[in-house]
């Protein structure tokens, strides 16, 4: 497992480990928000991944996004790999709704983060983990079937 940038570690909670990526939940109850961090050292850009891992990355992103949309009832999923403040490659997957505090603009820099309380965090993590790692719900590797 790679060394996680301290800012990512401080701002997120672990959800699960997939074949390529750590899946983490951003600690801001205002926006259901996953962060996928490829478990490879020294990555800054998506194109730093070998082609095979790029394919895996996008399968993982798609699965996480679909799951988050279903669980959150989101109107739209925003996906981005900015890296301006934390250069370690990580992909944001953010569930958006017309009634969220930043809609229709970006979530970055809007208001103050509101951390999950322990009950909210436990409930949301439980739902995420049930969908992201339940049999038949996980990432399918090339050549495998569900």
UniProtKB/TrEMBL annotation:
GO molecular function list: catalytic activity
Gene3D superfamilies: HIT-like
Cross-referenced InterPro entries: HIT-like (IPR011146), HIT-like_sf (IPR036265), HIT_Hint (IPR026026)
Domain HIT: 34-103
Name listed for the protein in its UniProt record: Histidine triad (HIT) protein
Organism (species): Rhodospirillum rubrum (strain ATCC 11170 / ATH 1.1.1 / DSM 467 / LMG 4362 / NCIMB 8255 / S1)
